[in-house]
Amino acid sequence: MLIQRSIPIVLEKSEDLLKTVEEFNRYQKSISEICFNFGQPRNALALHKEVYKSRPSCLGAQMKSSAIRLVASAYVSAKSNKKPAERPFVFRKKKALFLIGKRGRDASFSKDGKMSIWTVGGRKKLGFRIPEAFQKDFSDAKIVDSVNIGVDKKGSLCITLEALDPKSITPVGIDIGIRNVLVASTKEKTLRISGKPLIEKRKRTRKTRARIQSKKSSKKELGRDTRSVRRVLKSLSRKQKNFTKTFCNEAAARLCKWAPKDSVLILEELKIRKVSKKEHVRKGTRRKLNRFCYDLLIKGVINRAQRDGIGIEFANPAYTSQTCNACGLLGDRIGSKFFCPNCSHRDCADRNASLNVLSRFTVLRGGAHQSMCAEDQPTGMVKPLPLGRDY
Q1: What is the domain extent for residue 39?
Q2: Is residue 230 a part of any domain in this protein?
Q3: Do 98 and 58 contact (CB within 8 A), yes or no?
Q4: CB 273: neighbour CB atoms within 10 A?
């Protein structure tokens, strides 16, 4: 099985490379309004016919074509995300796409350990550096597709790796939460990854942001320039975003290293929506729900599992936190503890939920009849009643 990944790369400083990136960005801006077409964006082929000859540039033919495709795809992505463009895109981030391998000839890796790359000043051989954590992926790459370079010499290298096909034999139930980001359980052992570092980091960032925003408001009232304060706020937001992404990727890597060989990870298929301020929800609860990094965590787990040859499945999370894993009846969850009044079973609430996810997948695996599947009951799901109660 072949999978695509992006790894960071840093190139040697070059004025010609910088000019190439700036020219690539200038060409994108010049054709963006034509692609917008008064709210009816053109596709890549129509845009190519419209601007390829009429819009001059010192870029090579292949790089011009790449710029045209990227501009057209930006409008397509906006429409597919249900946020169609209301005005032409500006393309503030200055980056250039260089194709490598069979698809392109903009760049290549030479035997002397350097990258041969096309620039407006001619072909250049530049040294490059790949972080140690990604060197194995680079050496194991079957195909190197492209490299995206910015004005800061940093970029991302798109590579294709060969991964093992998952056998999906041993199931691992996973409960996802805020206090404990991941609780994974098999029938023999349990892994718990605490979300305390992420919670503390967000708390410190929130206090710092509040202090800086107060300073910004006071400056604004006095009529003073607030650009420096806005710059600090953007930097703070960027650092928080990077920390969250790194935390989720590290949690996913730890989970996949812990998982047994030939396992399948059963994740909860949660549907989390943003809570509006108009709803009667406590401020702290609303903040926790809106900042819950479920999508980012799931994406990290899926990417890591594909690379390590581990299967991924999803289960319905309904009542997994309230059902007793020992007897299957409803119990009482108080904070991080779970107690079943029917069979006197006590356990960690998150571990109990992960075992319920595991049991639900195990029961339904192997072609269970749809009418017997609790997950497929359409509406009005009947809650299990405690023992001794009349039906």
Answers
A1: 2-162
A2: no
A3: no
A4: 7
The residue with greater pLDDT, 385 or 304, is 304
Question: What was the pLDDT predicted at 230?
Answer: 87
Measured between alpha carbons, how far is 296 from 241 in angstroms, rounded to an integer? 11
For 174, 262, 272, 314, 349, the CA distances from 188, given in Å and listed in that order, are 14, 16, 31, 21, 17
Position 366 scores a pLDDT of 57
Amino acid occupying residue 16:
D
Q: Which two tokens stand for residue 39?
A: 């709210």
Last residue of a domain, one of 144, 162, 180: 162
pLDDT at 377: 43
Residues 112 and 177 in one domain: no
The counts of H helices and E strands in the chain are 9, 15
Residue range 356-368: average pLDDT? 74
- Residue 246's identity, in one-letter code, is T
Q: What is the pLDDT of residues 262-284, one digit of tens each?
A: 899 999 888 777 777 777 777 77
Give yes or no: residues 91 and 180 share one domain: no
